[in-house]
Amino acid sequence: MKKFIAMLTLLIGFNANAGLLTIDISSDDVTVGDSVSVTISATDFDESDLFWFDFNFDNSVMSYDDSSISSDLTLSNDDNGLAAIPEDYGLAFYFSTDDFLLNASGDFVLASFNLLADAAGVTDFSIFDLTVYGVFEETDPYTVEFTGSESVNVNANSVSVPEPSTVFMMMFAGFALVSARRQKNS
Question: Which of 30, 109, 110, 112 sits between 20 and 30 A of 144, alpha carbons compared?
Fold first, then answer.
């Protein structure tokens, strides 16, 4: 029994130290022309000076707004820091620093950006090829969770068409006004 409790404690201890990436999508149902905000947050992130991952989505349905990206990982040197690179599968994120005094660690917003709905359809989101290095060694794997939906449904623009009864009532009211005016003038 003592061995079982020791194994359970060890297992829980390892899971408690595992890092977590949380992905929040602002809406799961939009219309062509709308934008969707995506926020990727890191929790219990190991001290790291290099990481990369792919954020997958359907580029024929949504496109990346490169002017919308923000992150808690900011550097003064333009050659280093967080980069989001559009790819055929979605976005490739990359973080690197030559300054060993600045490392990503703890809890922070890794990236926040907008995707624009370009065409009707459905796109699923996923994180792929997540690799994290801390002082030149690969760290333990991270858990990836979505706080809401893992996909977005993009609807085509719709034009509202009044019901025939509404059009009929408006025409009837117009005829009644014209008729009343004619009777008054007679």
Answer: 30
Angle at 162 between CA 157 and CA 167, to 5 degrees: 155
108 near 43, Cβ under 8 Å? no
Q: How many angstroms separate the CA atoms of 149 and 107, rounded?
A: 22
Structural class in CATH, domain 2-185: mainly beta
* Domain locations in the chain as residue ranges: 2-185
What the block records as the tokens of 164 is: 């025939």
Answer for the pair 71, 111: CB distance below 8 angstroms, yes or no.
Answer: yes
Q: How far is CA 29 from the centre of its chain?
A: 13
Alpha carbon distance 112, 42 (integer Å): 12
